[in-house]
Specification:
The chain has 213 residues and is of the alpha/beta class. The protein has 7 helices and 8 strands; from the N terminus they run H-H-E-H-E-H-E-E-H-E-H-H-E-E-E. The protein has one domain: Rossmann fold. An 8-stranded mixed beta sheet has the order 3-2-1-4-5-8-6-7, with helices on both faces. Helix 4 links the parallel strand 2 and strand 3. It is globular.
């Protein structure tokens, strides 16, 4: 069973709460500013399909059947599967999205390699994530210590670790950051700024990488 399966309703309802909704809209805008090549697209860890729907991503893969049912209702073509072994042919997508999911997989290097495999030559990989250097990562790690059912299974990666994972497969093209304020998860986000580059105080970082070889 997927980690998220028992909590799929709680997960999806988070996006309707004051903080969740405002953070989500800002994260979507940050990703949109990072977009370039699009074409035939796949989101790995599509969840309930909120990001895929907002960004116009055609296909989604996720291990959680409960989440996929909701994503399908949102118009996404869904397939049940794992990011470490994508159920798609090699070189079948122009773009692959991995949004937050990388923090919840056991073997991120395998997920990145699979994204590389299913991408066409010159295809784009889009990442949206909380980097370890961020104050927000520390905020969520504290929640994990308190027994949060999802963050207890999260692992945050530093920008250096991320570069090591992708270095032989992808080159960096663009990077944007947002959620630049003190971490909290109750009130709507106040600072709607989206900036170029990596900022340690940012709660969400968007990257565009280009497939090598």
């Amino acid at each position: 069973m997927s980690l998220f399966d028992p909590f799929y309703k709680r997960y999806d309802e988070w996006y309707e709460k004051p903080f969740g909704k405002s953070a989500y809209l800002l994260e979507v805008e940050c990703l949109k500013r990072t977009l370039d090549t699009f074409g035939r697209s796949l989101e790995v860890g599509v969840g309930t399909g909120r990001f895929a729907q907002a960004l116009g991503i055609e296909f989604g893969v996720d291990p959680s059947l409960n989440m996929l049912k909701i994503a399908k209702e949102r118009g996404i073509k869904v397939v049940q599967g794992m990011g470490e072994a994508l159920p798609f042919k090699s070189k079948s997508f122009d773009s692959v999205f991995i949004i937050v999911t990388i923090c919840f997989v056991e073997e991120p290097d395998k997920v990145i390699k699979e994204a590389h495999r299913v991408l066409k030559d010159g295809g784009a990989l889009y990442l949206g994530l909380i980097l370890k250097e961020s104050m927000w990562a520390k905020f969520y790690m504290e929640k994990a210590k308190q027994g949060h059912p999802l963050y207890s299974n999260a692992r945050f990666y530093s920008f250096f670790e991320l570069k090591e994972i992708v270095k032989n497969l992808f080159s960096f093209e663009d990077l944007n950051s947002t959620l630049i304020e003190e971490p909290q998860d109750v009130e709507p986000v106040k600072n709607k700024e989206i900036v170029k580059g990596f900022r340690e105080e940012a709660g969400f970082t968007c990257l565009r990488l280009r497939k090598k070889g």
